[in-house]
Amino acid sequence: MSSKQWGRALLLAAGMALAIPGSPWAAGGAPSRVTLEVDDSRPALRSEAFLLADQATGQVLLERNADEVVPIASITKLMTAMVVLDASQGLSDVLRVARDDVDTLRGSRSRLPVGARLSREDMLQLALMSSENRAASALARYYPGGTAGFIEAMNVKARLLGLEDTRFVEPTGLSARNVSSARDLARLVSAAARYPLIRAFSTAESYEVNINGRSRRFGNTNGLVKSPDWRIGVSKTGYIREAGRCLVMQAWIMDRPMIVVLLDSFGKYTRTADARRIKRWIESGAVHQQASIPRDRSG
Question: Contact at 8 Å (CB) between 161 and 191?
Answer without folding.
Answer: yes
